[in-house]
């Protein structure tokens, strides 16, 4: 898992603001006003990402893509990807603030995470559809293929670190493992 965000099921230790804390609770914020400006801006940004996803969903529902099934599935998968990664980002945003883990220098991760979910979900869906993982999608002929695409996108967006690890394993199996993932800089 990434060091930038906790795993989905990670339990966090009790803090002064949690119900598990014994003794008087310090009700004052741990963050200075300039941090709260950044925290609010990130909250507004996440709300805008959600609004963007809803608007795009409404637009896509109005477009007739019946003759373009592959395009339709990839778009639905992308929506699932942004939904899953948005939920994960929002969960981490709330956790970071309430457990006093919020740090300004992780802003890049928080800003890009919802959109990385889109591209990773579509790419992972393509890998699945190509059969590179040995998994067969849409085994039930009664099921809607768009639901599979959305579900794959959602799970990939929600668990992107896990998916990145698995895709790395697939790539190493197909193309071989490099001798070093992080080459050392030459010391002169």
Residue share in β-strands = under 5%
Please write the string of helix (H) and strand (E) elements: HHHHH
Tally of contiguous helical segments: 5
Oligomerization state of this entry? Answer: single chain
Distance between the termini: 33 Å
| Integer count of domains | 1
| Biggest sheet descriptor | none
Q: Averaging pLDDT over every residue, what do you get?
A: 81
The proportion of residues forming helix, as a percent range, comes to 55-70%
How many whole angstroms does the radius of gyration measure?
20 Å
Sheet/helix structural class: mainly alpha
Features:
single chain; 188 residues; mainly alpha
Describe this structure in words.
The longest helix is centred in the first third of the chain and has 30 residues, at 33-62. The protein has one domain (33-175). It is built from 5 helices and no strands. The relative contact order is 0.14. α2 runs parallel beside α4 and α3 (107-129) packs across α5 (160-175). The protein is mainly alpha-helical and 188 residues long.
Quick structural overview:
This protein is mainly alpha-helical. It has 5 helices and no strands. The protein has one domain.
Q: What is the strand and helix layout of this fold?
A:
Layout: H1 33-62, H2 69-98, H3 107-129, H4 145-158, H5 160-175
Helix pairs in contact: 1-2, 1-3, 2-3, 2-4, 3-4, 3-5
């Amino acid at each position: 898992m990434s060091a930038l965000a906790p795993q989905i099921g990670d339990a966090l230790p009790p803090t002064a603001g949690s119900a598990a804390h014994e003794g008087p609770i310090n009700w004052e914020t741990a963050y200075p006003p300039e941090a709260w400006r950044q925290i609010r801006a990130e909250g507004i940004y996440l709300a805008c990402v959600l609004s963007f996803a809803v608007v795009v969903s409404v637009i896509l529902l109005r477009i007739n893509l019946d003759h373009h099934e592959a395009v339709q599935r990839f778009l639905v998968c992308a929506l699932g990807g942004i939904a899953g990664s948005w939920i994960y980002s929002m969960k981490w945003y709330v956790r970071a603030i309430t457990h006093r883990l919020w740090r300004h220098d992780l802003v890049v991760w928080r800003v890009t995470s919802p959109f990385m979910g889109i591209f990773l979900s579509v790419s992972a869906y393509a890998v699945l559809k190509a059969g590179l993982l040995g998994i067969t999608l849409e085994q039930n002929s009664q099921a809607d293929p768009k639901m599979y695409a959305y579900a794959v996108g959602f799970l990939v967006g929600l668990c992107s670190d896990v998916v990145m690890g698995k895709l790395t394993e697939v790539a190493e199996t197909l193309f071989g493992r490099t001798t070093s993932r992080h080459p050392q800089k030459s010391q002169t």
